[in-house]
Amino acid sequence: MSEEDIDIEELKRQTSHGDRLDSQADNQQQQSLKNEILEELERIDAGDEQKTISVWDGPTAAFIRALDEHPEQRAEIGSALRRQLDIDDDGSINRPELVRYALRLGFQQADPDKFKTLRKSVQEHATQDL
After folding, report:
1. Cα separation of 119 and 125, whole Å?
2. How far apart are CA 29 and CA 8, in angstroms?
3. CA dihedral over 107, 111, 112, 118, signed as positive or negative
């Protein structure tokens, strides 16, 4: 075996070991996030936390209010959001749904794994008392 082959084998060994450690750390972080989401859902159900959030963003607020005056365009955007999120489309969409779906799609696109953690947490929370 040449010195180059030994270096390549050593590099493979080091890399694969680090990947497992990184994967374990990622799993722990995802589990921690899932637990925190479940705790927040429990606090919301108990009335200790609100379901609402606020966003201070003038251009987005103007856009959403303008869409109120153009429901057909809001419906088009709503349909696109639902399609991307794999949600059944009933045609109409109100302002809270539009904002909710836009936020969800943004989170899903920014980090699909963390969004999957959210979905799993919500499913687990919904079935806890069955």
Report:
1. 10
2. 31
3. negative
